[in-house]
């Protein structure tokens, strides 16, 4: 299943991928951000689960299944570009700023903001086409919601 997902992400596309692929791409990106500092904290996992439950209106079993699939996809993904490209193609700009805010919520969930996380968020915002100003605003909103 993960191999099929990556085939769809890398294939020449004339139409956007389905909502399920965009969901998996966002979930995998959330997992990637959480794992960036080398510590996949329970507080980060809990935050990912809350984000997925709220964004996609999933019950606990649905959230757990999506996160597990995302963990596997993230572990196999050679780079972040594949996830961000899918999100950028599937999500309007204003919602991409919400994606950046969600990523910052995960980064800040464990109370530690490491340099690798900062670097990944800067790169991800750029790949998603989110301006520096909007990215900074998303970070501030995430920090104030902690």
UniProtKB/TrEMBL annotation:
InterPro entries: DjlA_N, TerB-like. Pfam families: TerB. Residues 23-140 form the Co-chaperone DjlA N-terminal domain. It comes from the Bacteria. This is TerB family tellurite resistance protein.
